Amino acid sequence: MTNLEPIRLNNTRKAQQNIIFFNRVPKVGSQTLMELLRRLSMKNNFGFHQDAVQRVETIRLPPDDQADLSALVSSYEPPGVFIKHVVFTNLSEYGYPEPIYINMVRDPVERVISWYYYVRAPWYFVERKIMFPDLPLPNPKWLKKDFEECVLSGDRECTYEAGELRDVSDHRRQSMFFCGHHRDCLPFNSEGALEKAKRAVEQHYAVVGVLEDLNTTLTVFENYIPRFFKGAGNIYWNEISRYNPINKNSFKPPVSEKVKDIVRRNFTKEIEFFQFCKQRLNKQYLALKLHNKK
């Protein structure tokens, strides 16, 4: 550990184009990081680009759409950042230069609870209805469904079975955003998806931040991708966190540790992936500290 060097832990040096690709995971503080990048784009003089909100969010793409996305990311004038809810897309597989990949993660059980109540928040439906007026209103019974009751009653919506292949729209698979489009990435809580996700992080991602440790996250972003993130900590702590809390859901009630423990039993691989990302971030941070002491 005492021989850690930031240069060896920084995939930014492998990038072949000065474009950040932030394939943001939902409910991990990605809205906050997006706002931080927007402000930094004005301060540090780089382009800011985000995908339009879609009626139906498609996070897994067929090969032709992956190729189109790769072309789109590479079409922006550098330096710049492109942001989209989509699983890891390897641009080099489609003949385009490697961008600077970044993302965020969060405790997977806390994240799935957050998503559960996020899609039931009144303001969420108001925003969606304004953008897409013909969307039907949800069933009031579904809106009032409590997460604890959902888990304890064995409701299908809150049953998380290993190997399950069904609908990915509830976003229980945080690791999928790093694993990619391969079919091996689809089974929930599987060893194959876990290993592919770890490999992608190690080989491609410059920084994967952790929502629960923003101090370390912002320090690593500033030092490992300084062209884009210079001054990030100052802007976050003095502007965004103080005056602009983003996407805080006051409609989310507390969930007991008993219920969380029930859910955790089926999130073993997702928890392992989260711990892997935390360990990697801490290793990057420690390397900075050791380097600065020399």
Automatic annotation (TrEMBL):
UniProt GO MF annotations: transferase activity
Pfam families to which the protein is assigned, alphabetical: Sulfotransfer_2 (PF03567)
Entry keywords, A to Z: Glycoprotein, Golgi apparatus, Membrane, Signal-anchor, Transferase, Transmembrane, Transmembrane helix
Domain of life according to the entry: Eukaryota
Main location: Golgi
GO cellular component assignments: Golgi membrane
Bilayer disposition of the protein: Single-pass type II membrane protein
Cellular compartments annotated: Golgi apparatus membrane
Family statement drawn from the similarity comment of this UniProt entry: Belongs to the sulfotransferase 3 family.
PANTHER family named among the record's database cross-references: HEPARAN SULFATE 2-O-SULFOTRANSFERASE, HEPARAN SULFATE 2-O-SULFOTRANSFERASE PIPE
Name of the protein this chain belongs to: Heparan sulfate 2-O-sulfotransferase pipe
UniProt organism field: Cryptolaemus montrouzieri
